[in-house]
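Below is a filled-in request sheet from our internal design queue. Each sheet records the structural input a requester submitted and the sequence that came back. We keep these sheets so that new team members can see what a complete request looks like end to end.

REQUESTER: design group, bay 2
PRIORITY: normal
MODE: inverse folding
CHAIN LENGTH: 269
BACKBONE (tokenized):
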């Protein structure tokens, strides 16, 4: 049983967001997958099972299974092409808790076809403004996350939120965003999901399913570039297409290994 670690949304090692990708030959016990994800201790571990012309894909943080993950999907597609499971020009098809997702190559980049996750204005959850401690322009939400927009890109970069308070809130995570003060990017963001075992996610593809329509509406353009200003940092180009969003980025494999036999047997489906 092979497992890779792939840095996603970056074109160089030790940047972007690392994801573990486990290539399975048959379905595995969810408790075993959760245990392996905790052992890897990355923001996401992806598990792939062949299903005809597609792959079943599930994502686990060190604490929970999630319904949608961008960077581990990008890492999964990259791994399938690198291992020769898929030919270079062949798209990767994934069946997930969020429906069918696809990935294709575009030169050196990978394009993910993801659902748009529209936002609606909302009142901030109790304690959130105090937990963030930054000037807030507006607060929105979708079924997964709360989106907080601030007027200051510098405030996003220097934010030190109270993660204990955020962890107690009933949502997956908090996105904090601002218009970029760097001409290379249109907007910047950071993402915090302590309730899912991820205090700060380095680069969050699924958050850009909300950030893309939000900034497209504000800036009047459907193609944008976002920078996630975590300590590792990562770039996500986005393209809004109605109820779908293209997430565009690169990936680099940094580690390749195998899971030993005794550990595999625990996860037999």
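RETURNED SEQUENCE:
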């Amino acid at each position: 049983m092979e497992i890779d670690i792939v840095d996603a949304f970056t074109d160089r090692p030790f940047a972007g967001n690392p994801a573990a990708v486990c290539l399975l030959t048959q379905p595995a016990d969810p408790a075993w997958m959760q245990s392996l994800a905790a052992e890897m201790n990355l923001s996401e571990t992806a598990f792939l099972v062949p299903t005809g012309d597609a792959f079943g894909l599930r994502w686990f943080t060190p604490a929970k299974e999630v319904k949608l993950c961008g960077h581990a999907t990008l890492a999964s597609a990259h791994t399938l092409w690198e291992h020769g499971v898929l030919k270079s020009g062949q798209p990767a098809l994934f069946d997930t808790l969020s429906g069918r997702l696809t990935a294709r190559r575009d030169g050196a980049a990978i394009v993910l076809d993801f659902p748009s996750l529209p936002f609606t204005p909302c009142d901030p959850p109790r304690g959130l403004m105090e937990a963030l401690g930054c000037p807030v322009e507006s607060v929105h939400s979708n079924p997964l996350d709360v989106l907080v927009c601030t007027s200051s890109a510098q405030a996003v970069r220097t934010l030190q939120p109270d993660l204990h308070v955020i962890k107690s809130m009933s949502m997956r995570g908090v996105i904090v965003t601002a218009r970029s003060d760097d001409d290379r990017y249109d907007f910047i963001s950071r993402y915090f999901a302590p309730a899912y075992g991820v205090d700060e996610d380095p680069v969050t593809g699924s958050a850009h399913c909300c950030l893309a329509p939000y900034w497209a509406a504000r800036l009047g353009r459907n193609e944008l570039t976002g920078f996630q200003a975590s300590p590792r940092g990562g770039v996500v180009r986005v393209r809004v297409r109605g109820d779908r969003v293209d997430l565009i980025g690169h990936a680099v494999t940094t580690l390749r290994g195998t899971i030993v036999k005794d550990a595999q047997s625990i996860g037999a489906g």
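SHEET NOTES:
- The chain is about 20% helix and 40% strand.
- The first strand starts at residue 2 and ends at 8.
FILED BY: M.R.
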